[in-house]
Structure formats: C-alpha cells, structure tokens
Design a protein that fits this description.
Radius of gyration: 18 Å
Number of strands: 14
CATH superfamily: Divalent-metal-dependent TIM barrel enzymes
Number of domains: 1
Shape: globular
Bound molecules: fe (ii) ion
Helix content: 40-55%
CATH class: Alpha Beta
Number of helices: 11
CATH topology: TIM Barrel
Largest sheet: 8 strands, parallel, barrel
CATH architecture: Alpha-Beta Barrel
Structural class: alpha/beta
C-alpha cells in the first residue's frame, strides 16, 4: 500500500490545509508551531513525526546527533520535548536522521551541511553509539504507548568528517537490522552520497535493501557549478531522482509492504503530488 503525504512548514501551512493527503509529516519539534497549527494537524489523522533538531538548552535548536552524549541525555529525559511532542501529535510514524560520525559538528556551505568539530569516531564506535541512542529512544517511546515503527533517514555524504560510515549502504542496513528500525530513504541524500561513492543511485538503494525501506523523502538535490547541494527541489527536476522514485515505488507497488511517499520540498507542491498520484495509479494498474 502506497500513501502520499507532505511536510508541513511555516511557509506552506496555507497550502497544506487545503490538500487531500494520506498523511502529514511534521519536521522538528517546535511545540508552539504545533499548537498554532492544531486546526491543520487535526485534519490529518495520520501523522509522521520527523526529528532533525532537538531544542535543547533555552531556545537554541540543536541538531539531533545520535552519537553525542548531549543527545543521549535529552532522549533519556522523559520530560523532554521529544516525548511532549509525541503526546501532542500522537504520530503513527517517528523518524530520525542517522547521524553523525563525530560528537560535535558545525554547519557550513549554502546547504548547511555538517563538519566534524571533534574527533572522527571509528565505525564500531559510531555503530555502538547510534545503536544505544536508538534503543533508548525506542524504549522510551514504548513506555508512553507508541507501537509504530521507528525510521532512520540516510544522509548526504560530504568529506568533512561528520559523515564517515553513516552514509554507506552497508552501515545503514546493518544499523536497521540491529536496532529493528526501518529506513527512511531521502532521494536527494541518496543521490549526493552515491555520486561521492561512484555508484548508481538505484544500486545504492539495492545495497541497502528495498525490503527495509518504509518511507521516501521525495525531492532532488541541487546541482550547480559541478557541485551537489542538499537543497530540496521537486523530484522531477532531475532524471536520476525521478528514476529512483519510480524504482522504489515499482518495487513496493505489487507487494503487501507499506510505503510512505512524503513530499519534502515546498516548491510546486501540487505538481509533485499530482505526479506521485499518477505514478501510484499507473503502477498499481499494471
Ligand atoms: Fe529528508
């Protein structure tokens, strides 16, 4: 079964309110924003809670970093905004960015990608810390009644020290198997990483294993001046992104597996949803 949804943002809330979606995704945990958009959120019984940032001390947004001790302290805290947001939204799906390979990271460049400020961790250290954070998150959510899946999103590789190990297809599938999580595949991130690794994006996804993919962030990266940027564009702007979306949907269309297609890019949202509807219809009809 293929469900189609979109990410709610400050910018698109007017448009989203009038759409017919199978689910709605909220990005980041801004309780004030959730409260102010409660009427929109209530229109969509099926919600996905996607966590990229955690508000930590004061109002500062902190990038969620599953290897950091600061993040681990926040996710251990039953009163943290992570669990308050869950109780407010009651999402059916919860997802996290699978990051990083350094405990302290900064941001740089026009796409705000991260770089390591501290030591780059070994593959084993990264794997162990991410696994510990995910099992802590999972235990805490189960305690407060969440019975759904927890998803981990692949990131876009940059040679900055922050993305070592975690962008490799083998690391992603191993982490998913070990922790019982499923994969949220971000199309733009996949294309950027596969170019760095010198493999085709479809082969990258085959190496992760399509069975473990539960959701797709439908988008494409920006390619400018010979460089790839993680700046979300409509998926059909880049043939490689369109091919990848068609491949995954084709894999899931015939089976019993569920797949969520979430439009993550605000631009041309109606056109993107229309194309996804057509794709779903054509593949199911085949
Ligand atoms: Fe994403």
């Amino acid at each position: 079964m293929i469900s189609i949804g979109a990410t709610l943002s400050h910018k698109n809330k007017g448009e989203i309110a009038g759409l017919n979606l199978d689910f709605i995704e909220v990005k980041n945990l801004e309780l004030e924003f959730f409260e102010s958009t409660a009427d929109i959120l209530n229109r969509f019984p099926s919600k996905s809670m996607h966590v990229q940032y955690l508000p930590s001390f004061g109002q500062r947004l902190t990038t969620l970093n599953l290897v950091s001790r600061e993040t681990l302290e926040i996710i251990k805290d039953e009163s943290s905004v992570l669990y308050q947001s869950y109780l407010f939204l009651k999402p059916r799906i919860i997802s996290f960015h699978l990051c990083f390979s350094s405990e302290e990271v900064g941001t740089e460049g026009i796409d705000n990608h991260n770089f390591a400020m501290g030591r780059v961790l070994s593959r084993d250290e990264t794997f162990e810390r991410i696994s510990l954070s995910l099992s802590t998150i999972s235990d805490q959510f189960r305690k407060i009644g969440y019975e759904g899946k927890i998803l981990i999103e692949n990131l876009d590789y940059h040679p900055t020290g922050a993305y070592e190990h975690i962008c490799e297809p083998g690391f992603i599938s191993e982490t998913a198997k070990h922790t019982g999580c499923l994969v949220l595949l971000d199309v733009a991130h996949t294309i950027i990483s596969s170019h760095y690794f010198g493999i085709h994006a479809v082969d990258f996804v085959k190496a992760i294993g399509t069975d473990s993919i539960y959701e797709v962030h439908v988008n494409s990266p920006l390619y400018e001046g010979g460089e790839w940027y993680d700046i979300n564009k409509p998926f059909y702007r880049l043939p490689e992104a369109e091919e990848l979306v068609r491949f995954i949907v084709g894999q899931k269309a015939s089976g019993e597996d569920k797949l969520l297609l979430n439009v993550e890019c605000d631009e041309e949202i109606y056109e993107q949803l229309r194309d996804l509807e057509e794709l779903r219809h054509s593949l199911i009809a085949d």
